[in-house]
């Protein structure tokens, strides 16, 4: 290997930096993972960093035997699947329409979408709206409000715009209608961008807790993120205010329970990444070639 | 922060601080007005289900069953179960069924504000601490409950019996009405004080410090024994330490800063952060810091909320021997020490706040959480019955015992002198009572739940479930310390609140920053007068005038 020194130095620096970056990213996760297998006393004493101290799986057993956790977990899966499906249908069809430059009123349609990026009604009016539509305490309050992400929509629109027109014209000549072209030609050619969008949407729905917090009043409807948030944010609030801490002493949620719940919550979405990664880069790039 | 303007600067809890600042933020400023109703109960029309001769210490049973919507806070470790005996027993005794709106504990203030602002709040809003209600008063969404307390015999009885009348005065808003009913406490002690390593204090011959001077001596001795240590810490950015220490110096500080105005001894109000007592306190802690007796890192480190975290770590590693905390913090420290020093080799103790130049005084007596009502309830035909039911639930001693311990002779027994013993088959793990019992009162049956069980408590009830060490702590405080008198009330009206908030917020920021600077030695104490002048230039005089005139007005209208 006779590479010029410059290239080798560049490579070495590159590798070092990326490895460091990787460590920075991984460290918190590994710590949480280690904490999830440690005893809470060891965590409090600050002994746990990369390796579990006082190894046990009791907390895993305790958390996984909690009925509310699984019910909320199920809700999250349901909201994610239904939400992503609805979002994909709406976004692809909307984006396809917008990609047709000859369409009359296209600018108005784009304007409507872009408008929502800059203006919204605000918290209380939105709440009143959802409430009067009768969507409170239903899945629809979670899956509908964010079903079209304008960012995703615009990325997809430019992807469709970049597809060769000739293919569509050929399909038209062969007798396909608009729906046929969309369903049988355009969508199969758009796998990268679709995979990317599915990932974006599903992560969005998986991580969302705020809509659920606003519009759901029954704990059996909560997604697991709200359960997790209550566990973590709730633990620190309760202690600092002295109310719950001192007299009611609902035992503070110990750090290892928090860790276990975090691990269990993040694993599924973590598993999806490697499979979509292949499309991920090309999807983003293709969308961004033309604005 | 608008919270510095609460009419009762006596409680030192975070919830209030968070609650008001969030509620007052612009997102929620669009509070909608809902029907207020007249302040008289139209007995004919609104007494469906109510008892004709409802009196104090009497069982309430609605003559016609009805349901009541309640805002229910879900604690992360106590998932609510429909099967809880709590709901059934309550319905059976009172004919009242709860309809719950569940809110996760982590964000309860935000959701509460949202529901109230959107006009969608349940009738009963529990877990309200004094000051939580202030920001909702002007919207008209909350019922001025003071107009109706005549229908609440238990409340009236225990306010009088436990001598809480003056404190109730303090709940009044600018219109002379109060909008929440608090949990009454026969006795109250500071929740957050000092947690010390008693064995180490004993070993160096210091004993338990009764005053701050003794505390200083003890810290010096410990420092000699453990030269690498910085024995005193506070994991709450010094806010907790200053809170309980200030009273001993005749000042108000930290969490207990309130609106900054306190009694000057003659019934008038002065701004605490420029008072002689405040300066003395600052100088005292400055001295401790200068001698290396304080873990200053803990004063500035991010507050992880529990006050444990890094302080617990230092406690475990014997570099800190006294730190702010509650009963629960003490347990956290013990767990950490078990890992390092080993079980049985140490003793951790929560001690009464040390006294000082102002005497052996502690914070004024406190209320605990109570409730407020959606003003729409005033139009309900069950209005009177609702008032009676809540009066029973919150203030009847039998109801309080029921909420804590469950059903008499089933989940607990009571002997002739009133001592409560849990049934051997039951446990109350939250308080580590009979952990061998198979059925947990709280987790399985819903008793001792955090939404209703903590509020009103007699001394006996409080002692019945707390640990021996906390009961000892309580006895020590009650027998050796005097609570300060509450500050004279000076409620502000809506416009004044806004103006006061604009004035007081920057002043309070300066106070906080400079207090820490002086204590940490970053600013020369000789510059104290300049510091006072800085506050003056920020409009301190205007602010003081504003509060004093509100005070005068209140006195005029209520004398």
Give an overview in words.
The complex is a heterodimer of chains A (291) and B (559). Chain A contains 15 helices and no strands. With 291 residues, chain A is mostly helical. Chain A is globular and about 70 Å long. The two termini of chain A are 41 Å apart. Chain B has two domains: 234 residues, 3-Layer(aba) Sandwich (D-Maltodextrin-Binding Protein, domain 2); 170 residues, 3-Layer(aba) Sandwich (D-Maltodextrin-Binding Protein, domain 2). Helix content of chain B is 40%, strand content 12%. Chain B is built from 21 helices and 17 strands. In chain B, a hairpin with a 5-residue loop joins strand 13 and strand 14. In chain B, helix 1 packs parallel to helix 4, helix 13 crosses helix 14 and helix 19 packs across helix 21. Chain B is globular and about 70 Å long. The relative contact order of chain B is 0.16. The N terminus of chain B is likely disordered. At the A-B interface, helix 2, helix 6, helix 13 and helix 14 of A face helix 1, strand 2, helix 4, helix 13 and helix 14 of B.
């Amino acid at each position: 290997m006779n590479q010029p020194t410059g290239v080798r130095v560049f490579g070495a620096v590159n590798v070092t930096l990326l490895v460091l970056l990787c460590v920075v990213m991984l460290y918190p996760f590994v710590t949480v993972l280690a904490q999830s297998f440690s005893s809470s006393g060891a965590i409090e004493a600050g002994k746990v960093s990369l390796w579990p101290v006082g190894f046990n799986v009791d907390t895993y057993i305790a958390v996984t035997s909690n009925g509310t956790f699984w019910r909320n977990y199920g809700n999250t899966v349901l909201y994610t699947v239904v939400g992503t499906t609805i979002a994909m249908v709406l976004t692809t069809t909307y984006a396809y329409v917008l990609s047709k430059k000859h369409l009359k009123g296209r600018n108005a349609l784009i304007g409507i979408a872009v408008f929502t990026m800059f203006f919204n009604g605000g918290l209380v009016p939105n709440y009143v709206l959802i409430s009067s539509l009768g969507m409170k305490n239903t899945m629809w309050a979670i899956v509908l409000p964010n079903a079209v992400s304008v960012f995703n929509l615009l990325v997809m629109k430019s992807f469709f715009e970049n597809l060769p027109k000739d293919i569509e014209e050929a399909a038209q000549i062969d007798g396909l209608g608009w729906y046929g072209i969309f369903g049988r030609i355009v969508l199969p050619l758009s796998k990268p961008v679709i995979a990317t969008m599915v990932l974006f949407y599903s992560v969005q729905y998986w991580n969302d807790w705020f809509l659920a917090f606003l519009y759901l009043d029954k704990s059996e409807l909560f997604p697991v993120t709200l359960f997790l948030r209550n566990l973590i944010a709730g633990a620190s609030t309760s202690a600092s205010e002295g109310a719950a801490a001192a007299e009611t002493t609902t035992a503070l949620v110990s750090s290892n329970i928090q860790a276990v719940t975090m691990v269990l919550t993040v694993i599924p979405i973590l598993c999806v990444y490697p499979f979509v990664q292949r499309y991920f880069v090309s999807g983003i790039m293709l969308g961004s070639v033309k604005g | 922060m608008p919270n510095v303007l609460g009419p009762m600067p006596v409680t030192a809890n975070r919830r209030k601080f968070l609650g008001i600042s969030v509620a007052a933020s612009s997102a929620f400023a669009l509070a909608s007005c809902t029907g207020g109703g007249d302040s008289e109960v139209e007995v004919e029309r609104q007494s469906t289900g109510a008892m004709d001769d409802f009196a104090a210490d009497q069982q309430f049973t609605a003559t016609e069953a009805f349901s009541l919507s309640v805002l229910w806070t879900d604690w992360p470790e106590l998932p609510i179960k429909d099967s809880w005996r709590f709901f059934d027993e309550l319905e059976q005794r009172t004919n009242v069924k709860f309809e719950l709106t569940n809110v996760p504990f982590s964000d309860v203030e935000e959701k509460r504000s949202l529901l109230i602002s959107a006009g969608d709040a349940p009738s009963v809003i529990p877990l309200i601490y004094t000051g939580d209600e202030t920001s909702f008063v002007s919207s008209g969404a909350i019922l001025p409950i003071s107009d109706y307390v005549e229908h609440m015999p238990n409340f009236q009885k225990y306010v009088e019996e436990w001598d809480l009348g003056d404190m109730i005065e303090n709940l009044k808003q600018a219109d002379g009405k109060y909008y929440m009913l608090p949990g009454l406490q026969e006795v109250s002690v500071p929740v957050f004080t000092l947690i010390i390593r008693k064995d180490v204090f004993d070993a160096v011959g210091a004993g338990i410090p009764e005053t701050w001077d003794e505390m200083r001596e003890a810290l010096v001795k410990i420092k000699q024994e453990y030269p690498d240590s910085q024995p005193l810490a506070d994991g709450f950015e010094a806010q907790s330490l200053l809170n309980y220490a200030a009273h001993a110096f005749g000042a108000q500080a930290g969490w207990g800063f309130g609106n900054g105005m306190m009694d000057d001894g003659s019934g008038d109000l002065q701004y605490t952060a420029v008072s002689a007592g405040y300066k003395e306190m600052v100088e005292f802690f400055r001295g401790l810091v200068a001698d290396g007796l304080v873990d200053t890192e803990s004063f500035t480190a991010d507050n992880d909320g529990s006050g444990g975290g890094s302080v617990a770590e230092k406690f475990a590693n014997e570099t800190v021997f006294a730190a702010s905390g509650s009963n629960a913090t003490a347990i956290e420290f013990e767990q950490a020490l078990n890992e390092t020093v080993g079980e049985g080799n140490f003793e951790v103790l929560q001690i009464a706040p040390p006294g000082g130049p102002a005497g052996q005084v502690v914070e004024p007596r406190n209320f605990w959480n109570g409730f407020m009502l959606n003003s729409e309830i005033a139009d309900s035909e069950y209005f009177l019955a609702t008032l009676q039911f809540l009066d029973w639930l919150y203030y009847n001693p039998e109801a309080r015992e029921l909420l804590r311990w469950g059903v008499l002779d089933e989940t607990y027994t009571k002997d002739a002198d009133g001592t409560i013993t849990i049934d051997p088959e039951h446990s109350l793990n939250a308080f580590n009572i009979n952990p061998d019992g198979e059925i947990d009162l709280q987790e399985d049956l819903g008793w001792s739940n955090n939404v209703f069980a903590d509020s009103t408590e007699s001394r006996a009830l409080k002692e019945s479930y707390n640990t021996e060490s906390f009961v000892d702590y309580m006895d020590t405080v009650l027998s050796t310390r005097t609570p300060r008198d509450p500050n004279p009330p000076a409620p502000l009206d809506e416009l004044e609140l806004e103006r006061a908030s604009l004035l007081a917020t920057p002043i309070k920021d300066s106070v906080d920053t400079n207090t820490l600077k002086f204590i940490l030695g970053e600013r020369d104490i000789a510059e104290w007068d300049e510091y006072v002048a800085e506050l003056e230039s920020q409009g301190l005089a205007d602010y003081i005038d504003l509060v004093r005139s509100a005070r005068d007005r209140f006195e005029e209208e209520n004398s």
